Amino acid sequence: MPRRRGRAQYQHRAEWQNVMFSDESCFNLCYNDGRTRVRLYRGERNLRAFIVKRHSGQTLSVIVWGVNVDNMRSRLLRIQGNLNSNRYIREVSEPEVLLLFHNYDGYGYSGSLEYDQHGGDPHAESDYDRQGYNNIPDMVKRFLVYFRNCISEGLIFEIQNLYESSFPKLTEQFFDKKPWPEVSDVAALVDNDAVFLILYKELYYRHIYARVTGCPTVDQRFQSFYNYCDLFNHILKYRLDPIALELPDQWLWELVDEFVYQFQSFAQYRARVQKKTPEELEKLHNNNKVWNVLCVLNVLHSLVERSKIKRQLEVYASGGDPDSVAGEFGRHSLYKMLGYFSLVGLLRVHSLLGDYYQAIKVLENIELNKKSQYSHVPACQISTSYYVGFAYMMMRRYSDAIRTFSSILLYIQRTKQLFQSRTYQNDQINKQTDQMYHLLAICLVLHPQCIDESIHQVLREKNFHEKMYKMQYGELSEFESCFVYACPKFLSPAPPPADAPPDYDYVKEAIKYQTRVFMDEVKQQKMLPIIRSYLKLYTTLPLSKLATFMGQGENSNWNLNDGMKALIIHLLCFKHKMKNVVWTKGTSGLEGKFQSGSELDFYIDHQMIHIADTKVAHRYGDFFIRKILKFEDLNRKLHMIKI
Amino acid sequence: MAEAMRSAVAQMLTGIERYNPENVPTLESYVDYQSRENTYDLEANLAVLKLYQFNPHLYNTNITCQILLKALTNFPHTDFVLCKCLLNEKHLAEPQIAHIMFLADILESCDFQEFWTRVHSVPDLCSQITGFHDSIRKFVCHVVGITFQTVNRSVLAQLLGGVDDQTLKHWVNKYGWREEENDMIFIANQDENIKTKNITEKIDFESAAAIMAASR
């Protein structure tokens, strides 16, 4: 039983009643669980004769799960197949634990869970604002107490369940468009547990940012920033010992992600000079350390350094054991994962500032194409690929961008059902997926290349072909609108100057600029699709003939000689732009070799263009497999029919 | 010397130290050094631009110009775009920077003849970068090397910036090209690299095994 930590502090029976014990256990029909069972009588310990050994090999097993609270227990739940955290929440925690919660109340149990009758600490009671406190629904009070207990005991599965499931549910039920209870009201419920209150505040502000209309105010932005400072200070304060806190990886990811998001949101807020009162402007001016880009970078770098995650990844990539270099902190799951997620946070911050080189560099030793022990948080995977693919696109490494986007889009296609149930993650994932399809479409227009058939299918179904057609025919506005929709929300790191002209749009400044850089690139390439469309029709084509084709529709001043000159320039440009660095191997995403990965290539010999195209044979495999499965299914259904 | 400086600067750019504005003078003199000694360190240069981005009052046009020109010398790599992304609209409006942007644009478009004309019209701008012209010629040779199997001698001389016979021979030898009759220069046998690809579907046993087992 793994969940025993910290139980000693529950000394009184009344307090024990607050504690839920849950565990799952696997019973194998043959002993093949890798354990050796020993029956222990006094004095017989470790005697070889009493060790029972059984055969190894395939065996059947039953997994069951149950929970005990005080004098109640849940149903015994049978779990089929592999139990992962998503299934755990969907099938175990949500139906069972929440049911138990409700029943708890139904049994007329009003002992120590009701804090109104708990007179243990009279000071605490006078401390809080009774009015606000009384407004907290009982169910929420119980949730908070239980939540805090789980965190202080390190019940990781239970915390994950409360975080991913109960918290959003209660939010929907009680705090849809309004904030969660004030921290001062919650403090008394949880014995002023400092760590819990920091974590609670993080959720509190995150909810305000996401759901409460008219918020966050400038004060809330400041407070949230200070709370992040408290949190990271708490985590990093001891140089020698890691703190004893464990949080689910999903939460840690969202924590880092939210931290970067709020930084981004603040920079945009600060840039909107027009709508601010002089007091607000002054306040921003006087507190220029708050949400300062250096603070944010400092936090992320500190987490990276403390966890030694870079070294760990290096060792992991070369096949070693990352724990061997992780040190005291890096072995601790909280630090390790915060370190990893901070790398992704840095990727995002660098991308938002237009520093694509650093963006890719920070992920050195992470092999994006491979599944690893760090890659189990889907939202993190998706976000990483989005920013990496985008950076590649801006670096004109279209092959790498296309590879990055298609592999993550395939992954999303395959695992969609898994996170579809978690609605609160869904919006962001859907948005980012759609953005990646746009970016992929752009890359495929600039650098036509074979991609996975099922991704092609989606591009067809979602009508990207019309957009791609327009871009191919040189419609710059289509490029621009796709880019603006799909790009990250770029920031200027420095606040607008104090003497800023009030009519200038600082919010859009950075986006406009990055769009311009991208559009400059597109304009340099604008002749390439036209040339490509001609070349596709031939295997050899004289330069003069192509020059004549290109000259069609030009005015009467056009002559072959100038046309040939212009054509050579375009052809050189074609070759230059289509030969790019492509990652081939190794752990640095920046490295690679020059390759021409696009489907059409050519060379010029004397006055003749020799063209090499890529021919893709029709694929039958998928088609037949689908048909076979369909047939099987039909057959099965026919057998089921009883006449 | 160059290696020692490179590693000293790399040390300076690890972790959060990278953003320390006190590093600016050192890094700026390192940029000067690169221009003078014809060495190149993209990462250090990007760090300078980043420091300018974070501390607009430290911005220095001359250094920025040098960094951009150095990035031009590293074509066909996309260093120039990386540097450009760290600037802003206001910088691009400065006449010197605008001029370099224009040079980069025609170089990216491979309009080499136009590029040389423009470069020669502002000799001061590029003369501060040692070896600027030859670096650009390297890029020209790269593009020529991947485009042509044979190319007319005079066309090549023009692409390289109207070079004389002696210089042309130097570049032809350097890249192992060969002068042929009729004023042609043989670049390389491109059939070997550039040929029609056929992608056919390969189905291995493993991927079909599951379905075969299921439909027994």
From TrEMBL, chain A:
PROSITE patterns: PCI. The keyword Cytoplasm applies. It comes from the Eukaryota. Gene3D superfamilies: Ribonuclease H-like superfamily/Ribonuclease H. Keywords: Cytoplasm, Initiation factor, Protein biosynthesis. Its main location: cytoplasm. It holds the Pfam family Paf67. Residues 404-618 form the PCI domain. The keyword Repeat does not apply. It is found in: Cytoplasm. Component of the eukaryotic translation initiation factor 3 (eIF-3) complex. HAMAP family: eIF3l. Belongs to the eIF-3 subunit L family. Component of the eukaryotic translation initiation factor 3 (eIF-3) complex, which is involved in protein synthesis of a specialized repertoire of mRNAs and, together with other initiation factors, stimulates binding of mRNA and methionyl-tRNAi to the 40S ribosome. The eIF-3 complex specifically targets and initiates translation of a subset of mRNAs involved in cell proliferation. This is Eukaryotic translation initiation factor 3 subunit L. It comes from Periplaneta americana (American cockroach).
From TrEMBL, chain B:
Pfam families: CSN8_PSD8_EIF3K. InterPro entries: ARM-type_fold, CSN8_PSD8_EIF3K, eIF3k, PCI_dom, Transl_init_fac_sub12_N_euk, WH-like_DNA-bd_sf, WH_DNA-bd_sf. Residues 40-202 form the PCI domain. It comes from the Eukaryota. The keyword Calcium does not apply. Keywords: Cytoplasm, Initiation factor, Protein biosynthesis. Its main location: cytoplasm. The keyword Aminoacyl-tRNA synthetase does not apply. It is found in: Cytoplasm. Component of the eukaryotic translation initiation factor 3 (eIF-3) complex, which is involved in protein synthesis of a specialized repertoire of mRNAs and, together with other initiation factors, stimulates binding of mRNA and methionyl-tRNAi to the 40S ribosome. The eIF-3 complex specifically targets and initiates translation of a subset of mRNAs involved in cell proliferation. Belongs to the eIF-3 subunit K family. Component of the eukaryotic translation initiation factor 3 (eIF-3) complex. This is Eukaryotic translation initiation factor 3 subunit K.
